[in-house]
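[step 3/7] inverse_fold.run input=structure_tokens len=90
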């Protein structure tokens, strides 16, 4: 699903003003090259078996049934399909 939001990029003059404000902020610290190299990645750890993004079409009735269960419908759909595959019913 694509966002309808428009990205507004600052003009070069605005960018200079923004960077000047950052440099003047006593609570801001700019990392050096070596410090930057020592940073560790944060966020979710990589999965052993990551999911694969696909585009697929389902009957509206199927999607409505899973969405009726509320948030997490895609996970529930994945779990239902996984049970079918693991049960050898493909």
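[step 3/7] decode complete -> sequence:
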């Amino acid at each position: 699903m694509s966002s309808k939001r428009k990205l507004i990029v600052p003009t070069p003059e605005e960018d200079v003003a923004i960077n000047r404000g950052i440099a003047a902020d006593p609570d801001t610290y700019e990392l050096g090259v070596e410090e930057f190299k020592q940073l560790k990645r944060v966020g979710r750890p990589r999965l052993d078996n990551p999911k694969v993004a696909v585009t697929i079409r389902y009957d509206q009735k199927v999607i409505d049934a899973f969405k009726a269960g509320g948030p997490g419908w895609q996970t529930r759909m994945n779990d239902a399909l996984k049970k079918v595959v693991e049960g050898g019913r493909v």
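[step 4/7] annotate
The CA atoms of residues 70 and 76 lie 10 Å apart.
The mean pLDDT is 92.
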